[in-house]
Amino acid sequence: MKKKSSKQIIVRVTTISLIANIILAILKAVVGFIFFNISVLSDSVHSVADVLTSMLVIVAVVISNPKPDKKHNYGHERFESLILLLFSFVLVGVGGFLVYQGIDGIISPSSADVHFMLIAVTVLAIVVKEAIFWFAMHFAKKLDSDIMKADAWHSRFDGLSSVAVLIGLVVSIFIGTNLAEGIAVVIVSLFIFKLAVETFIKAIGQLTDKSADAEVIEKIKAISIGIDGVLGVDEMRTRQFGNVIFVDISIAVDGQMSVSDSHDIAQVVHDTLESHKELKIKHCTVHINPFRNSD
Could you say which residues of the chain have pLDDT below 50? Predict the structure, then answer.
């Protein structure tokens, strides 16, 4: 059987999450409408946002999947960064909507007539959303996909908003209003805003050629210096390109060495660095300098 690519895995996992979110959104909307419960209806809107973000992930993967072409010589990975940026805006919108609903419930708490079905669909949503989170996060970590991790966390926050709704429903049975629910929803929205900011910063970093992490840079240097014939690393520049990095490195070799031999060393450096999949190097350019002893 042919091994599935990381892109295919992401699409399959996200599609499963998408279908689950569609079912949950419909269930919440129907039950919330039947019993006219604003909190459950609001929670269904959050699930709709989850549907949209899952669709964005699939679109990002499909668009960024094609190989480099004449118009995009470096590939299409930055489409993932653009979708990640758009994803952060969606999170801000969801957070803002929940804040509005929560504050409205705090300022003007309404009486609550809690039906068993409202609690049942909310509990179901919590269980399913937590399952989606762990399922998606397992593959997100395995594939080291930033956009998939963000989508998984959004699923968890959707689950947390359902927890807030559940707390509000249960407390409402005793106090008769949705005041507690409003407070819980506002707290959840703050976590959503935090995720939105982190996602925005990551996307902007990828779109503005942010360099690789210091740990990755040091590892690249160590690997390069450890190659036979490399006497030092004179200069190195890295830039993030979507979820991968480009490396431009200048190595020092024996100045008396022939052009052919120095080229062979550069080729070994190039091939060795790109073979380390954990570094996520899409392309490495190696320059050769004659070694100059600082002494």
Answer: 1-3
